[in-house]
Amino acid sequence: MGRPADPARREATLTRATDYVLAHGLAGLSLRPLAAALDTSPRMLLYDFGSKQELVVAVLAEARRRGATRLTGHLPATAASPEEHLRAIWAWISAPERAPFVRLFFEVHADGLTHPEHYPDRAEAITGWFDTLGTTLRGVTTGPDDTVTPTLVMAVVRGLLFDLTTTGDHDRTDRALDRFCELLRR
What we know:
By secondary structure, the chain is mainly alpha-helical. It has two domains: about 1-70, Tetracycline Repressor, domain 2; about 75-185, no CATH class. It has helices at about 5-25, 30-35, 40-50, 50-70, 80-95, 100-115, 125, 130-135, 150-165, 170-185. Helix 9 (about 150-165) packs antiparallel against helix 10 (about 170-185). It starts with 6 loop residues before the first helix and ends with a helix.
């Protein structure tokens, strides 16, 4: 009979593996170097997560959870306008300390284009933001079932993040968000 699973060890490993992936990315991720960095063995990683792909899925879910939790603490009060909410989201997500999350976000999207089988819940990376944006865009959307407006806002934010990550031009991307907010006001 095998040794019973240790949820506390798995959780601690997941925390450290997520930190590692945020620092180093997913490209070329191999269990041996990851295990060495985490002071464990590839065999223990497989024991705790079942497969490398399951480990990656868990790490991505943890990174999304961390991001959502941290963002929630930076949003203005519910009485704030949609523009204030959107500006708060942009200020938070475009901050230099969020760069590892943003790089991982784009890395996963790029890898998902060539290997969609690795990301069965890849749509969640987009639609998972709808609840946050629905609250943010109250008064701008056409109703509770409006998925078009959050899709448009996510596309603009994602495009600006890609531009910022690629060029480093914070001033121009901030001004582009300002222009988008003006369009939303109309």
